[in-house]
Amino acid sequence: MNKKMRFLAVPALAVSALALAASPAMAAHDGTYSSTLGQLNGTTGSGSITVDVKGDQATVNLQVSGLAQTFMDAPYPHVQHIHGGAAGKCPTPADDANGDGLLSVSEGVPGYGGILSTLTTSGATTPAEGLNLALGGQGGTYSIQRTITIDEPTQKSLAAGTAVVVVHGLDPATAGVPAEVFNGRSDLTPEPAAALPLGATSPALCGTLAKTQMGAMPYGGADTGVATESSSSSTGMVALGGGLVLAAAAGGTFAVRRRAAQNA
User: Model pTM?
Assistant: First the structure.
């Protein structure tokens, strides 16, 4: 009797072993990822993010405060993304390749990689929405709390520990660079007709998403702050397609108000 039971158990155990062998690869990225976002380019802001992942569904909780608050009495549109496929690191002042005093998006790419998912306030979250200011965070203090679908590259980057969250959009009053640098054409919009100011797309907050253990405190990324002196500058703002689009308008000025950093 015991021999028969052992004989019948062998195929069942073999099937179970195959199922267990297949499941880790399918769910290697599942879990909770978090980061405390460090400061870049003289920002006074702060932020934190938690991403709960199961399969291709990710529940995002992003909290940001203390960033540039307004353009011409309208909320400043900040865009934020999950970057990946690179070293999984935030840039430092040493990465300012052209020495203009401002870390641009392209200067940060070797560390954090290209856009994998756009953390929009609503709608699509693909890289194509990377500069959709109408779906960005509005104002100096805001939150994004939603469940999104993440694609395979994002899943792989999370599993590899190379997923990095970057929030863009600087305050010219704290960026510490001359107006002509801040208002220079963004490296993300090379065409003059669609040009955005360099400072409007440069990274303000950055942090690597690290997987947390059950019951553990959120893992914080290192502060990558840049020490700067206050300065002032001006850019412009136009409306395009119903959304806010920043533009370096000749002779145009706008008031940027910033709020003191708060705990996220």
Answer: 0.75
Q: Is 131 within 8 Å of 187 (Cβ atoms)?
A: no
**Residue 193, number of CB atoms within 10 A of its CB:** 6
User: What is the mean pLDDT of the segment spanning 179-204?
Assistant: 85
- Structure tokens belonging to residue 83: 């970057």
Q: Which CATH number fits domain 27-247: 2.60.40.3080, 3.10.20.340, 3.40.50.970, 2.60.40.200?
A: 2.60.40.200
Residue keyed to tokens 């990689």: 113
Proportion of the chain in helix, strand, coil states, percent, rounded to 5: 25, 30, 45
Residue 93: burial class (beta carbons within 10 Å; 0-12, 13-18, 19+) = middle
Instruction: Copy the structure tokens of residue 119.
Output: 């953390």
- What mean pLDDT comes out for the span 51-79? 93
| DSSP symbol at 15 | H
Express each pLDDT in 225-248 by its tens digit.
333 333 333 333 333 223 333 433
- Which of 43, 77, 62 is CA-nearest to residue 170? 43
